[in-house]
Design a protein that fits this description.
four-stranded antiparallel beta sheet, single chain, alpha+beta, about 200 residues, 4 strands
């Protein structure tokens, strides 16, 4: 089994087990048709009151000027490796409901749901997505004239994962390390906070 495939305790969809976030990407473009399907998957995510508060700015390496503009909105540590990705995406969220202008407490959650849909669609197509919280919201607002009450929240690098052996040592170990997760008993509770639910205790014991 590929070391990046999840060693699950319970059956899950294969596409979820295969999903992972590489730091290295092949020098290979992603087709426009595939990108449209990724955003179509995001489009059909659930959202509070069907608000759909997500917005995306996208740039490909084929357009070096636009790619450089979006790259500049990432923190320096992310720019180091993300500059090799064929596609960069900035996730922007509307923090207020369009109808009544009240704060939307679900907005960031819903941006995450849309990203989840996009990532699953990408994995099913043989693509990988590396999501980042390390963005520069003020820089993004300046570069793209993002309006008030909208905020650049996350970014994504999209492409085909590279052979880790070809990566610099500083990144190689990250792509070669097997994935790990908390056991269910560490986050599925019942009765009171921190008390594992009986539902998950048997397998985790």
């Amino acid at each position: 089994m590929n070391i990046k495939q999840a060693a699950t305790d319970h059956p899950i969809l294969q596409v979820l087990a295969e999903r992972w976030s590489p730091y290295g990407f092949e020098d290979r473009p992603v087709s426009e048709a595939d990108l449209r399907s990724l955003f179509e998957a995001a489009r059909w995510a659930a959202s509070s009151y069907n608000e759909q508060p997500w917005n995306y700015l996208v740039a490909t390496r084929e357009n070096s000027r636009e790619f450089g503009r979006l790259l500049s909105c990432l923190v320096e540590a992310n720019q180091v490796w993300a500059k090799a990705a064929p596609v960069l995406v900035l996730g922007v969220v509307s923090l207020r409901f369009a109808e009544n202008k009240k704060d939307n407490r679900a907005a960031v959650h819903d941006l995450g749901l849309a990203a989840g849909n996009l990532v699953v669609e990408a994995t099913a197509r043989g693509l990988s997505v590396h999501q980042m919280i390390g963005v520069l919201p003020d820089k993004a607002r300046e570069v793209y004239q993002i309006p008030e009450h909208f905020e650049a929240w996350t970014a994504m690098a999209i492409g085909y994962p590279a052979d880790p052996a070809k990566l610099p040592d500083a990144l190689k170990w990250r792509d070669l390390t097997p994935r790990q997760r908390k056991r269910l008993s560490k986050f599925v509770f019942a009765g009171q906070w921190g008390q594992p639910s009986p539902l998950v205790l048997q397998r985790d014991s």
